[in-house]
Amino acid sequence: MQCPSLLEAETVDWQQAPCSLASDELHVWSWDTNQFAATNECLSWLDAAEQQWHNQLATTALKQRYAGAHLGMRRVLASYLQVAPQQVAYHISQLGKPSLPGSELHFNLSHTSSQVLLAVSKSNVGIDCEQLREVTTRDSLASKHFTTEELAAYHQSPATEAVRYFFQTWTRKEAIVKLTGLGLTARVEQLNTQAGEQSVNTVAIPPTWNTSHSAVVLMDLTSPSHLAASLAVEQQPAQVRCYRMTDLG
Ligand SMILES: CC(C)(COP(=O)(O)OP(=O)(O)OC[C@H]1O[C@@H](n2cnc3c(N)ncnc32)[C@H](O)[C@@H]1OP(=O)(O)O)[C@@H](O)C(=O)NCCC(=O)NCCS
To answer: Which class would CATH give 10-246?
Structure first.
């Protein structure tokens, strides 16, 4: 299987979002929160916890990003669940993982800057994206969070590729952590995502992690040059479809 590609995503008006998902299929949605006009009517779709979080954000830009991510998420999930966006009722685990109780649908959300990714599947899933940027603490973060193999590959990568390698490895780890739902309790320095350089790899979950998963399938997403993104799934889907949502007004 080739890497799913955000660059070749099918552009879809949100009103025409596909509302069905085969059990062996996975959908990845992307959109830009700058395109989202968060009207007061739309903001009323947010539940009490989302409204509380939105209200305490310090700047208009942060509010715009959060609202754009969560309203877009509600629109997409509503189309699969065939309910109104304000009726999407998701539960958040003690460690922060959102899920849809009573539904066979699994989802996971990631946002970086104004870019949002949402994975929707019939089995457990984690997704992560990061905007490529210079981080002054990059080397020390790599030393702290990467395995010996990952760290060696990071230090061997050409200077022009080091930022991409760093963030690709970071998103691989985060996507797996997000699938497991372990959040900050996961010992990411024990998780080796360097098993192979194929587009799809099976990655062993460290036996010390407090999870029922022994291995997951990890995929890099072919992304625009400013972005790294990865997807983790319980079982390899027969097909991954990527959609780019437009016309979010
Ligand atoms: C929770 C965590 C996974 C969020 O990741 P992030 O890159 O900061 O943020 P993202 O935009 O990708 O994801 C945020 C979304 O993930 C979801 N999420 C939050 N906690 C989650 C969890 N425990 N499991 C799965 N999904 C979670 C939410 O939908 C959240 O959206 P919201 O903040 O708008 O409500 C991350 O903060 C974390 O705990 N990481 C632990 C692993 C670690 O140490 N990583 C370091 C280097 S690899």
So the answer is: alpha beta
